[in-house]
Amino acid sequence: MQASQSSRELTSAQEVSAIAALGVNWYHNYNPTTDNSNPTSNMHVPAFFDTSYLTAPNIAAAIASPSSAILTFNEPDNLPPGGSNISVATALANWHQFETMGKRIGAPPTAQSNANGTWIVNFMGGTVPETGLPPQVDFMTVHKYLAPGASLASKLSTLGTYLAAIYAAWKRPLWLTEVSIITFTTSDPATWVFGTQQEYIDLFSALPWWLAQNHPYVERFCPYPLAETPAVMAMNAGFANIVLADNSTGALTAVGTAYRDAHVQH
Q1: Backbone phi, then psi, for 183, in 5-degree steps?
Q2: Least C-beta-crowded within 10 Å: which of 2, 17, 109, 178?
Q3: Residue 262 CB contacts under 8 Å (≥ 6 apart), including other chains
Q4: What is the pLDDT tens value at each position of the chain, 266 positions in all?
Q5: Using CA atoms, how far apart are residues 260 and 263, in angstroms rounded to an integer?
């Protein structure tokens, strides 16, 4: 199992600093490309947030990437800015472009259940127009947000039940590309409820060992997010509890340090 981080709010130099400090062996930034001068580019996994990213240059860059895998449409059953808001029909109509890249392909991570949600069930049961076959899906990409205030044991139990259900439904490896402790009460970040910093430290310290021992079908995972912009940080004081790196410097926070120490040991 490989530890990672999602990064989209740092400059190239800050990204290099933070990812190197975390000691992770892969990362994604919700984009097909990364700065070619970035020494972490060999760890970058191309991601196509929505159909607008499926341009000839981006496809060529993903094909040329040393990554053996690609990530696809982000939360297609969710509205922007967090989701790509793509219908099953649109996803299937564009899927053959992924299939021709010669990479392992991750299923779109849904906001609804990745085990039995309407979007993923209809997608996995659909066909790609060019081939008449089900879509090539080599691993399931998963997002999971846990309840603030619950005990660590309760959080891990909830996460474990969800991961097991997805694996049982689709019999494919899992990539947990977003995991955090947030309750999304409305679409306004000012209303979101975050866990305490200690909750994040406890969760991210436990995850590497716990996943390896209990859910070996999880190939890769990463906490979310690496950092946030000052504008986002100003929306809710809870963001300060969650980030792994400081946006202005790329330096690790206490949460980032705990995550680094945990996954390096395991």
Answers
A1: -105, 120
A2: 2
A3: 204, 205, 206, 207, 208, 209
A4: 455 556 555 666 777 788 888 888 888 888 898 765 565 667 889 999 999 999 999 999 999 999 999 999 999 999 998 899 999 999 999 999 999 999 999 999 999 999 999 999 999 999 999 999 999 999 999 999 999 999 999 999 999 999 999 999 999 999 999 999 999 998 899 999 999 999 999 999 999 999 999 999 999 998 988 888 888 899 999 999 999 998 888 889 999 999 999 976 54
A5: 6
Query: In DSSP terms, which residues pair with 142 in a beta bridge?
Result: 176
Q: Map residue 165 onto helix, strand or coil.
A: helix
Distance in angstroms (rounded) separating the CA atoms of residues 72 and 97: 11
Tokens of 76: 């297609």
Nearest-angstrom CA–CA distance, 174 and 244:
23
As a whole number of angstroms, the distance between CA 154 and CA 86 comes to 33
| β-bridge partners, 174 | 140, 218
Q: Is 132 left (phi over 0), alpha (psi -120 to 50) or beta?
A: left
Please tell me the predicted confidence (pLDDT) of residue 88: 98
Instruction: Give the integer Cα–Cα distance in Å for 44 and 67.
Output: 7
Residue 84 is encoded by which pair of tokens? 């790509």
Show the tokens assigned to 146. 């846990």
Burial 107-141 (b: 16+ CB within 10 A, else e): bbbbbebbbeeebbbebbebebeeeeeebbbebbb
Report CA torsion sign: 147, 212, 220, 118: negative
Spans of all domains in the chain: 2-265
CATH architecture observed for domain 2-265:
Alpha-Beta Barrel (3.20)
Q: Phi, psi (5° rounding) for residue 97?
A: -65, -35
Cis geometry, peptide bond prior to residue 216 (ω within 30 degrees of 0): no
